[in-house]
Amino acid sequence: MKLNAYILAAMLGSSGLAQAADLLETFRAAQANDPVFAAARATLQAGQEKLPQGRSQLLPSVNLSANSTFNDQNIRYLGPTAFPAGNQRYNSHGYSVNLTQPLFRQQNWLAYTEAELQVAQAEAQFRLAEQDLILRVAQAYFDVLIAQDSVQLARAQKTAITEQLEQAKRNFEVGSATITDTHEAQARYDLTVAQEIAARNNLEIKRRTLQQLVNEMPKGIQSLGRSFKLERPQPADMEQWVSDAQLNNPQLVAAKAVAEIAEKEVARNRGGHYPTVDLVANYSKNNSGGGNFGVGSEVTGKSVGVQMSMPLFQGGAVNSRWREAEANRDRAREELENVRRSVATQTRQAYLGVVSGIAQVKALQQALTSSKSVLEASKLGQEVGVRTNLDVLNAQQQLYATRRDLFQAEYSYLVSQLRLKAAVGSLGEEDVVSVNRALH
Predict the structure, then answer these.
(1) Which of 223, 149, 196 is nearest to 436 (CA)?
(2) What is the pLDDT of residue 368?
(3) Average confidence (pLDDT) over 268-282
(4) Residues 119-128: what's their mean pLDDT?
(5) How many CB atoms lie within 10 A of CB 395?
(6) Quick one: average pLDDT of 8-36?
(7) Mean predicted confidence (pLDDT) in 77-100
């Protein structure tokens, strides 16, 4: 995992969002400032330390111990002796170096293999956090866009209704229309004003959500271009996407690592019954300025040997931990199966989201064309007296509602594309670049 590259990208992107930032700039700013992603990066760094910790249990350990002691002794002999009696005060000191090299410790070896799986799990979880950041940024970005579009559409609709209101008032004054037309236009105008206020409030909320990711209030973001392409998933086979997800989805990879760790935990706890064999070496040197015989001494010791330890009975703790590990293994297996099924469902949903999104965008594009025609026909019909003011107002509302639904469908289609890539574990910055092209 190229962790340093992400740290460098975070440092380079720490300057924040430029004015009218696009999706790629927003994503890089989020890489540098999102606390959730920063926590995931720190979790990865912590997880990678599991491997040297597991390896250390297979390597020799060396310990140094030293001591210095002041002794105050009063010696009295009960029979004739040549050794001096009385009070003796002296210092003794020494040091010892001990080396232990495991020769056979099954539990240590299994702990090392577990550490490798723990690193794989940490890397898969970080990969999941990367993809989650892309999806959160894209969703927040497009939420701001649709909120902006809603405000603009509310303004445009208010302007159009204002014209209808003024026309209704003029027609009423000259007697060519009833007061009902004026009241209808006024009611529709008041409703649109309320909708604009709600749209402005929603826009502020969505901007604050995006600010939470990039730690800066976006001054402006690029809108979606009108010529972006609708592309079907390749391959156009939903079950093939599901098969790819079963192999590469980071959530599933992490769950598999957890299940394998639980399996090894069973073997490791079973190894609590096995003997351990170590190579043990010791070097020590002790000096004493006095003693029971009135003279000092210097003792140097060296030893090398093989030490075996065999657990016989530990109050049933080993068997209990073994049974506990087996239960945890069964739980991990069931959780893995649940993740496998969830990933398959999510992949199918994402695939159908892209396919149905294409159909929905095309249908709404046609509906928009039809709504424009209906509005023009209603205005013309009002002029010749075959359509009422209410008909025109309804046609205007239908047109703006269709535009809003079209914008929403386009953004949902783009997010579904990203979700499908995330389901198979292939979502990356290059996909952000691809979607970003639609914003120019």
Answers:
(1) 223
(2) 93
(3) 92
(4) 96
(5) 21
(6) 71
(7) 84
Angle at the Cα of 201 from the Cα atoms of 195 and 205, rounded to 5 degrees: 140
Residue 382 has pLDDT above 80, yes or no: no
| The residue to which tokens 């209101």 are assigned | 165
How far apart, in whole angstroms, are the C-alpha atoms of residue 22 and residue 16? Answer: 12
**Res 284 pLDDT > 50:** yes
CB 76, CB 103: distance < 8 Å: no
Q: Where in the chain is the domain with CATH 2.20.200?
A: 61-74+83-104+276-309
Task: Find out whether 22 and 436 touch, Cβ atoms under 8 Å.
Answer: yes
Buried b / exposed e along 93-106 (16+ C-beta atoms within 10 A): ebeeeeeeebeebb
Q: Read off the tokens for 26.
A: 């927003």
| Residues 242 and 295: beta-carbon distance below 8 Å | no
- Cα–Cα distances (Å) from 163 to 151, 166, 182, 399, in that order, read 19, 5, 11, 16
- CA of residue 310 relative to chain centroid, distance: 45
C-alpha count within 13 angstroms, C-beta hemisphere, residue 125: 23
Poorest-pLDDT segment among 141-155, 280-294, 302-316: 280-294
In angstroms, rounded to a whole number, what is the distance separating the alpha carbons of residues 432 and 34?
Answer: 17
The domain defined by 61-74+83-104+276-309 carries CATH number 3.10.129:
no
Exposed, middle or buried: residue 318 (CB in 10 Å: 0-12, 13-18, 19+)? middle
C-alpha distances out from residue 105 to 52, 59, 115, 175, Å: 17, 11, 16, 102
* Mean pLDDT value of segment 271-286: 93
**Using CB atoms within 10 A of its CB, is residue 250 exposed (0-12), middle (13-18) or buried (19+)?**
buried
294 confidence band (pLDDT: 50, 70, 90): low
Domain 3-57+105-273+317-439: which topology? Outer membrane efflux proteins (OEP) (1.20.1600)
Sheet holding 61-75, edge to edge: 61-75, 86-104, 276-288, 297-309
